[in-house]
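Problem statement: downstream parser choked on a complex file, so we are re-checking the raw output for the guanosine-5'-diphosphate run. The parser issue turned out to be on our end (a line-ending mismatch), but while we're here, posting the original submission so the record is complete.
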Amino acid sequence: MFATLSDRLTSTFKNLRTKGRLSEADIDATIREIRRALLDADVAVTVVRQFTGAVRERALSAEVSAALNPAQQVVKVVNEELVAILGGQTRTLAFAKQPPTVVMLAGLQGAGKTTLAGKLALWLREQGHTPLLVAADLQRPNAVTQLQVVGERAGVPVYAPHPGNQGADDVLPAGADPVAVARAGVETARQKQHDVVVVDTAGRLGVDAELMAQASDIRDAVQPDEVLFVVDAMIGQDAVTTAQAFADGVGFTGVVLSKLDGDARGGAALSIASVTGRPIMYASTGEKLTDFEVFHPDRMASRILD
Ligand code: GDP
């Protein structure tokens, strides 16, 4: 991820470093190269415009022209503006004063929600929490079983519609109600004193009204403290459109970028926080449960500009 973007920005700055004082034309040429590199990396047009506008304004200010090394100062400005569009501060789950903290996962099918549920559960357990996973994805064959498998690997219990029926979601009663399952799961967490409950929900292949309605019904039923929108970074520009649809249809408090280990151009990762106004909280970086990290905007920016 980001390899091409990173290479292009690095070579842009290398050219700039050969100059001493920077003229307005030098700055504009640099901004043009940055704009092209971002657009080619699939960064959303609105974000590119906002970003290059902010960089240009600061690059032409006294902050840069008075600097001993103007080129280095431009790189610093670009770095700071990158951190800003990536959401600024690092942000992780905010725990409720009154447990359990309810975390709901939302996103398209295949986004990596179920995998993420296991990763998050393991991460929480390692931090001394006592999570419960709730299998409220009753849409996809095997989703319940898959959650039970990741729960077992993470050493975290799973509340499923048929607790005794391991691996048998094909015998779920027709019309099993995901909203009721989610509600009962959260109630179980309360009774059994789990301090965090993570509710996995169904996704569809594309955004549709029924999916949104079900997700908002679950949200209304469990009143989550956090709704995490899980999005596959590999889907490029579509990630931003999908995020916007979920922001409007369900609402979320944070983003999890999955499949950051892939070789996508990275524009989604760079656009999503800025477009939705919600922070990227975690990154999923592989298929193993330990391939999971807290997302740090500053580290990501440094990685891109390295
Ligand atoms: P869900 O439909 O949203 O629950 O998605 P899943 O959790 O079932 O994930 C869909 C596919 O993506 C599975 O094959 C996962 O193993 C894979 N996957 C999930 N997260 C990652 C990730 O961070 N990196 C990679 N390479 N694959 C992932």
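For whoever reads this later: The pocket of guanosine-5'-diphosphate is lined by residues 107, 109-115, 203, 258-259, 261-262, 284-287, 291 (CB under 6 Å).
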